[in-house]
Amino acid sequence: MPAKKILLFGLAVFASGLLLGAVLYGKAKWQTETDFVGEVFQMIEQDSLYDVDLTQCRYDILKALTRNSLQKRDETGTLVPDKEFVCLDKFSGFMTPDEAKEMAIEMTGKLAGVGLEIGLKDGRVFVFAPIAGAPAEKAGVRAGDVVVKIRQEGEVEAAAVTDVEVAAKLMRGKVGKIVYVTLEREGKMFEVAIKREDIKVPSVEVKVLPGNIGYVRLKVFGEKSADEMEAALRTFKSLGAMPEVVFDLRENSGGDLWTALEILYMTNKNPNDMALTIRYNKNRKPQTYTIKSMNGLFRDVATGSAKGAGEFSNYKIVLLVNENSASASEVVSGAMKDWGYQVVGKTTYGKGVGQFVRSFSDGSIFRLTAFEFCVGNAKYCLHKKGVTPTAEVNDSRKPPADTGTARDAQLQKAVEVLKNLP
Predict the structure, then answer these.
(1) Could you read off the pLDDT of 64-88 as tens digits, one per residue?
(2) What residues are paired with 191 via a beta bridge?
(3) Shared fold status for 113-200 and 204-353+370-419
(4) Among 125, 117, 53, 116, residue whose Cα is nearest residue 89
(5) Can you identify the CATH homologous superfamily of domain 204-353+370-419?
(6) Within 268-387, where are the H helices?
(7) Which of 365, 312, 300 is nearest to 5 (CA)?
(8) Distance of CA 162 to the CA centre of its chain
(9) What distance in Å separates the CA atoms of residue 137 and residue 380, rounded to the nearest whole number?
């Protein structure tokens, strides 16, 4: 694997690096802070994908510093976004040390929280599934419940939530602390108290459907997900010479870019096929990843030897996506569609830009939109467009627990498409 780490988590892309954050001896504190901000401005000037008015950016920062700390809330109690901070796009921003630490832990598949997979539907945060054996399941939370409000231990007022990332952040935190979650089920509201625990989050769900069809759902592109996907796909070799597989990327908001590229490497052995093209601003040359250029990048965990391309290229694979499939999910589904694989579901989220992230010595990070990516040989740039399915099917799952069952219309269509492949 390359030393440089790039993530597409919620389509945020991370590249290693270190900015000035240490105390500079002999300087006043304000001078040190000025150096800190100067490094950020230098990064914006050199790496931003978009033209940025640095003077306007300075004004925006100063306005934010002098604004009343009591932020505005709408009639539901949800924080109103600050529309005055306009110098950067909505995917750029700063993460505190605690926020950066939570993000890093999440990518390992281990975190402290309540154990819920959540998603966004019709503008509401819903429970996609409780993790088996996790605190939320023990507390009686079910798939399909709507998360309305969340209150931390020691807080009097619960915060209304309409954003998945905000809800996830509020439910994660120190082990042993209690989170109070207000849920809605069948029109009735109730509150459950859930004590946080250390949780191992599996990234892959695998099973065999009726008719000897393999089913694998990838929940996130984590650090171990490529190995888990490889193991899952290998189990389907017993299904025949050309195994039929449904690859479910619905509700997958992204993750590790190298995991996405490794999955593409597993499913294609044509050396000249392009998986991904990255376009920067005028200061950097574009990068293109072909199957050939990825030779030697990926190693077998057991032997340490380089993996060969296309181990599963003989599989008949149909992909499932929806409007919550984003980032690395769009890299995989977009490239595979371009290579001739069938895609079923709804058009994906459509966030085709990525961020460089620089780390400060205190553990905080600054992320900046630095490139646009395009998928497949056609170099299809999907930002604000998404990946359009070859077969569009509405989501029939009510509740989300219907996923992977006979009540899942998108899955049933994928099976139908599989059966009609030559």
Answers:
(1) 777 654 455 554 445 454 544 568 8
(2) 182
(3) no
(4) 53
(5) 2-enoyl-CoA Hydratase; Chain A, domain 1 (3.90.226.10)
(6) 328-338
(7) 365
(8) 18
(9) 41
Angle of the 328-338 helix axis to the 257-267 helix axis, nearest 10: 20
Percentage of residues of the chain with pLDDT beyond 90:
53
Q: What is the pLDDT of residues 139-195, one digit of tens each?
A: 999 988 999 999 988 887 888 888 887 888 889 888 899 999 999 999 999 999 999
**Contact 105/111 with Cβ under 8 angstroms?**
yes
Nearest to 165 by CA among 44, 254, 74: 254
Please give the single-letter amino acid code of residue 129.
A
How many CB atoms neighbour CB 177 within 10 A?
13
Q: What is the side-by-side strand order in the sheet with 204-209?
A: 204-209, 213-218, 244-248, 316-321, 342-345, 391-392
Q: Which two tokens stand for residue 137?
A: 């399941």
pTM of this prediction? 0.76
Answer yes or no: is pLDDT of 313 > 80.
yes
Q: Which of 283, 267, 259 is nearest to 233 (CA)?
A: 267
What topology is assigned to 113-200 in CATH?
Pdz3 Domain (2.30.42)
Pairing of strands 116-121, 124-130: antiparallel
CA–CA dist 354, 370 (Å, integer): 6
Q: In this structure, what are the phi and psi dihedrals at residue 171, rounded to the nearest 5 degrees?
A: -85, -15
Segments making up each domain of the chain, as ranges: 7-98, 113-200, 204-353+370-419
| Least confident piece of the model among 105-114, 145-154, 385-394, 395-404 | 105-114
Cβ neighbours around 336 below 10 Å, total: 25
